[in-house]
Amino acid sequence: MRVFVPVLLAAAAILGLQSCKSKGSEAVVAAPTQPGTGTMTPAGPPVAEGLTGKVLERIDASPYCYLRLKTAKGEVWAAVPEAKIEKGAEVTLATPMLMNNFESKTLKRTFPEIYFGNLAPAGGAPAAPAAPAIGAPAPGANPHAQVANTAATIEVGKVDKASGSDARTVAEIWAQKGSLKGKTVTVRGKVVRYSAGVMGKNWMHLQDGSGDTGKGTNDITVTSQDGAAKGDVVTARGTVATDKDFGAGYTYPMIIEDAKVQKK
Q1: For the chain, is the Cβ count within 10 Å smaller at the N or the C terminus?
Q2: Which of 79, 112, 133 is the last residue of a domain?
Q3: What mean pLDDT comes out for the span 95-103?
Q4: Of 133, 165, 194, which residue sits at a domain end?
């Protein structure tokens, strides 16, 4: 994680990536894995400013760290993805989100107010929000259907199916998700959304012209160490995961993880 002080988690960047159910969780904007409870609402300074303060105290709770910050408005607690942050350092949280009455089961402690966010690079502008934090839909809504609407500026057309015994179209992966869980698939598609460096991964949404836009089965989320750009046609080979829960209400009915991605 770069120290500027960017998701996020998220992700959410990325990932972006988004969710379908709303629930409390010990997660930074870029998607958490630790248990917790509370209510998260957009809060804090405008995104252009972020939340800046001097580190007075640091508590590590891998894969995150909690920071007590001295800000212009007083002392506040914040949580960010794990990073090397020294006491006394001035840090900035990009796109801070406020969690009220957050109980960290890991620390066995309740924070009346705590800001979750990503670190921004020192001296730079706050990073874009982690992909998963972008526009969470109402409970029960299909997050991929939302991506289909917000990615409308990308002309996808018809992308040729990848080759190989594990090759599938986007629609086929959705249709076979139950039997594909934990298995490797290869899919070729156009990148309609891309977020880099969220939770140590690059996140992208791929579409190939197959599937139902209304149901969201025309879009699939892929995570990778490999880079890409919005508009690229790429071939991704990774492992299918279903009902993936990153916390803070950001869940994916299906996602392809740790993919090797190559441009067409």
Answers
A1: C
A2: 133
A3: 81
A4: 133
